[in-house]
Amino acid sequence: MSKLGLYVHIPFCQQKCLYCDFSSYARSEHLFDSYTTALCQQIVDQGGMLCKPPVDTVYIGGGTPSVLPVPLLEKILKGLMANFAIQAEAEISMEANPGTVTKEQLIAVKSMGINRLSFGVQSFNDTLLTSLGRIHRTVDSLTAIEYAHTAGFTNISIDLMYGLPGQTSDGFACELEQAAALNTSHISVYGLKLEEGTPLATAYDQGKINLPDEAEEEAMYDCMTDFLPKQGLLRYEISNFARPGQQCRHNLKYWQYQPYLGLGCAAHSFLQGRRISQVTGIEEYSKAMATGSSPVAMQENLTKNESMAEYIFLALRTTQGMGIAEFDQYFNTDFFGHFGKVWDNLHRQQLVATDKQQIWLTEHGMKFGNIVFRSFLPD
Ligand code: SF4
How far is the CA of 168 from the centre of ligand 1 (A)? Predict the structure, then answer.
């Protein structure tokens, strides 16, 4: 049976970025202690309820986990170690904002057992960073990565973004070169999505900012998919590139339909075919934990058709794709028998390919993944 992955949500940020609609809050330092207490309570509760299950990945995400003072991070890590059977070879990742880290802090988190860092670099262009409302500048990213190396981290990831206001494909190509030159083990690259209600979306609606046109954005995408593999960073998921053997094992769990437990406000879990999400507010979550009530906001048992669609499109996000025998066995259903028409249609459009053992997205399919994913959804 698959070992469990743990996701731990730290909902604090120093400042809210202009494009962000994640569950994260600025100016909430006064809640650091009470939130950590609540989180540790849930760690004890869930670890006990699941009988200290074996765990091989932990992902501390946010928000910005690196804004939390070291003693509070240590308390959380100790709680996890005491209440879950964290395996010796477990991947333990923490997200960090380059504008919030110090060398001492990274040395401390390394000594707690965190062995992978994911830096939200987003861009190597200070004008673009300013336009996104990021608190850090390029020099902070370079310094943070240097600190991480000094602290002994060998597994370091950076996030980059494309399709930003004022960004050009030539400029993005230079940013990719800068990113690759840092020799990190992993790079994630995401296209900007304007989320309704964010200041950046409002500025766009009001005509105050311009985004690259479709052709320019496609040129950025093509540059990323062409350039990074040549630098030894192989694409293993639509937005993720890694050196051999350094894929993010925690994120692979999401795409491989394996179980994970979310801890903290706004965290999601996938356990025994059930999707569970927790309340998003920090105070609501902390109050629930303090009063012994449930922090769960929603849980749903997926129908078989929903589960099959989800299983397929999560697997198809990866370059490895989906094993047909695994699907048939998991759902006791013949894949080609059930999805024959959908498959033929996608295959005709050269969006998918197969060798009869695996199915995967073609290069073209990776670009237009949403068309493929929609096709498998039940009516
Ligand atoms: S640092 Fe990340 S989570 Fe925090 S506001 Fe910016 S994008 Fe959102």
Answer: 23
